[in-house]
Amino acid sequence: MENSAGDGTERDGTDRDSRVAEQLLRLTRRIHHRQKHLLRPVGITPAQGRLLRTVARCETPPRMADLAARLEVVPRAVTTLTDGLEANGWVRRVPDPANRRVIRIELTDAGRGALMALRAARREAAEELLAPLSDEQRDTLGALLSRLTGEAGGNGGDGGEPHARGGERSGDRGSEQGDERGRGRGDARGSERGDARAQAAPPA
């Protein structure tokens, strides 16, 4: 009987944790969907937006490798994202003054304007999502999410941009990382297949 009761308690805990995990996933998808809708007029994807914010936070123009390390994706994924940003005039590739063979990514004035529009869209998405919650509930949610994500304090990142009363950054960042890592895994798989083919034929 004791084992049966213990197993029941363990199952209850597992079911609860699974429910919470599923709720977090649904929340992330909702944020991601809403942000994509709000960003459509700007012409930027969430993944491109995070790269743009990362470039803006760097004290000096970063290298591709620096951005890949910060975003935790393969360099090829950063190249693809940078190509899109550069095509819109939001960043430009510039040679390193100390070593002209090294290319760095520099934010343009148009990129700063896009960054402002991006931040406004993120705030609006967060406000819409958190509308049913009181200020106290938002603070509680923000504290819980910060604990889960290992962040210290409720603010930070994105050049000092405040969170939407406690809950916006964590969900948004999770959705963007998922998008970026999805790109990275796809690029990595493509690269591995290319390496395998290279053993039998010259690379394209």
Automatic annotation (TrEMBL):
One of its GO terms (molecular function) is DNA-binding transcription factor activity. Pfam families: MarR. Residues 160-196 have a biased composition (Basic and acidic residues). InterPro entries: HTH_MarR-typ, MarR/SlyA-like, WH-like_DNA-bd_sf, WH_DNA-bd_sf. Residues 148-204 are annotated as: Disordered. SUPFAM superfamilies: Winged helix' DNA-binding domain (SSF46785). It comes from the Bacteria. Gene3D superfamilies: Winged helix-like DNA-binding domain superfamily/Winged helix DNA-binding domain (1.10.10.10). GO terms for biological process: response to stress. Transmembrane segments: none annotated. Residues 17-150 form the HTH marR-type domain. PANTHER family: REGULATORY PROTEIN MARR, TRANSCRIPTIONAL REGULATOR, MARR FAMILY. This is MarR family transcriptional regulator. It comes from Streptomyces montanisoli.
